[in-house]
């Protein structure tokens, strides 16, 4: 199975700052990677798919990059509603897996 | 709009069984693959299972293979997850989710999710 390792586990930032989240895969799978945001008590929301494509309705401050085994989610100028847990997920081969998540918290 | 409503969760003893259901509306259910994903207390999100739009293929995470069965009834726009031989580590909120692209042979990504149903495995 492909293992996705996210870092850091927790990111403490202030509104207006930039967040850079990493997702590293145990093997390469092209750009078949998505990013999700989850807030407490809510369902996950698809932000980015195929590594760099924004899902419908996702603000431009969210961007994804990377390929192969190293991927990055960048949130430019954090808004108060962006503080949440973020997960990466691959569809390179079965079974699909998620990373363990990065919590972006208010500093 | 897309609506996914899960039901069937509850408290069950280790070794027991549960059947989760997901009622779908707001889209052409029979053309989309569907997923079950769970949120566990210690491990975050885990992808559990996928079934193709025509029910002709399905996939599972390793730890549930042989214990869980995903199925669907396209005539009723319903998705199911039969869970047998439940273990404490299966305790989680279970979400059903719609796939992103219709009529493809393999899954794409889950895009719309329900609000989840809680499964607690405890004696």
Unreliably modeled segments of chain A: none
Mean pLDDT, all residues of chain B? 96
How large is the share of residues in beta strands of chain B? over 45%
Task: Please provide the count of β strands of chain B.
Answer: 11
Distance between the termini of chain A: 35 Å
Bin the strand percentage of chain A. Answer: over 45%
Beta strands of chain A, count: 10
How many strands, which pairing sense, and closed or not: the largest β-sheet of chain A? 6 strands, mixed
Give the count of helical stretches of chain B.
0
Shape of chain A: globular
List the uncertain runs of chain B.
none
Biggest β-sheet of chain B: count, sense, barrel?
Answer: 7 strands, mixed
Distance between the termini of chain B: 40 Å
Class per helix and strand makeup of chain B: mainly beta
Q: Looking at the structure, what is the overall shape of chain B?
A: globular
Task: Provide the succession of SSEs of chain A.
Answer: EEEEEEEEEE
Q: What's the mean pLDDT score of chain A?
A: 96
The helix count of chain A comes to: 0
Which oligomerization state do the chains in this entry correspond to?
A: heterodimer
- Give me the Rg of chain B, rounded: 13 Å
